[in-house]
Amino acid sequence: MAVKADFHMHTNFSGDSSAPMEDMLHRAVSLGLSHVCITEHYDPDFVYAPGEEAVFELNTDSYLYELLRLRQKYKDKITVGFGVELGLQPHLKRQLAVYAKSYDFDFIIGSSHLCNGKDPYYPEFFEGRSEDEAHHEYFLSVLECVKTLPYFDVYGHLDYVVRYGPTFNEKYAYAKHADVFDQILTHLIENEKGLEVNTKGFCMGLGQPNPCAEILKRYHELGGEIITVGSDAHKPDEIAQEFDRARSLLLECGFRYYCIYQSRVPEYLKL
Ligand SMILES: [Zn+2]
Ligand SMILES: [Zn+2]
User: Fold this and answer.
1) Quick one: which ligand is closest to 161's CA?
2) Ligand 2 centroid, distance to 153 Cα (angstroms)
3) Element housing 197 (H / E)
4) Owning domain of residue 99
C-alpha cells in the first residue's frame, strides 16, 4: 500500500500561499490520492515582525464556500476535507474554543508557530542561549498548549522549532527533552489526540520528518495509534512529497495504520 491521503496543505486562503485550491486538487488527483484535507492557517493574535504582512488571518466563510464548490466538482475523483491549522497560544483559550465549534470541520491540526509570543522562525529566538535551551522553552510551551487547548484532533509538526535553529537538528536529540516529550505524548494519548507526521522536515533537509523518528517510536511505545500524514504543501508540486519515505519510517517505528478524518472522527487505513 501507499499513503493515499494528504492531511496538511494550504491554498491561497492562507496568506503564505498563492496556490488556487483547484490547482492543488488537480495535482492531488494526478498523483492518485484518494483524500486530501485542506488545512488553512487560523493563527489569531500572531506576533508579526515589523513590516511583515499579517498572513495568518483567515476568511473562513470564503474558504468554506470555495471548498464546497470544488468538493462537488471533484466528488468522483477525490474526497476533500474541510480542515484548519489552529495556531495555539494559551491566552487564546476562549477564542479557539468558540472558533473550533463555529464550523463543521472535518479535521483540526493544533500547531505552535509561536513560543511565549516569540517566533522561532527568526534567529533572535535562539540568541543569547544554547540551542538546547531554546528548544526546551519551545517544547515546554507545546506542553502547556496541548494541556490547555484541547480543540484539535492531531498535534502538528511537533518539533517544528528544530527547522530554524543555527545548526538545525544536528545537536537535537529526543533524550535531551525526554521528560517533556513523554508528558506531551502521554497527554495526547490519554485524550485520544493524534500526532501528525509532517514530511516538510524531509524536504528541508533534516533527514527526518517533524516530529523525528525517536518521537514517533516513543508515541507508539506509549500506546499512541493515531497518525496522520501531511506534506504541509503551499504549492501544488509539494503535495504528498516524501510520502513513501514517511511510510517506511512509520512501519519501522511499529505503526501499521495511518488515519484520515471526516467530521472529526478518525478512520484507520493500512500503511
Ligand atoms: Zn504549521
Ligand atoms: Zn501548515
Assistant:
1) 1
2) 14
3) strand 194-198
4) 5-270
Distances in Å between the Cα of 142 and the Cα atoms of 36, 87, 254 are 26, 11, 25
Q: For residue 253, how far is its CA from the centre of ligand 2 (angstroms)?
A: 24
pLDDT at 45 over 80: yes
Cα 156 to ligand 1 centroid, rounded to whole Å: 7
Look up the pTM and report it. Answer: 0.98
Site of grid cell 487505513: 269
Residues with a beta carbon under 5 angstroms from ion ligand 1: 111
Mean pLDDT of 159-186: 97
Residue 176 and residue 180: Cα distance in Å, rounded? 9
Provide the CATH number for the domain around residue 232: 3.20.20.140
How many structural domains are present in the chain? 1
Which DSSP state fits 16? T
Q: How far apart are CA 257 and CA 194, in angstroms?
A: 12
CA of 245 to the centre of ligand 2 (A): 19
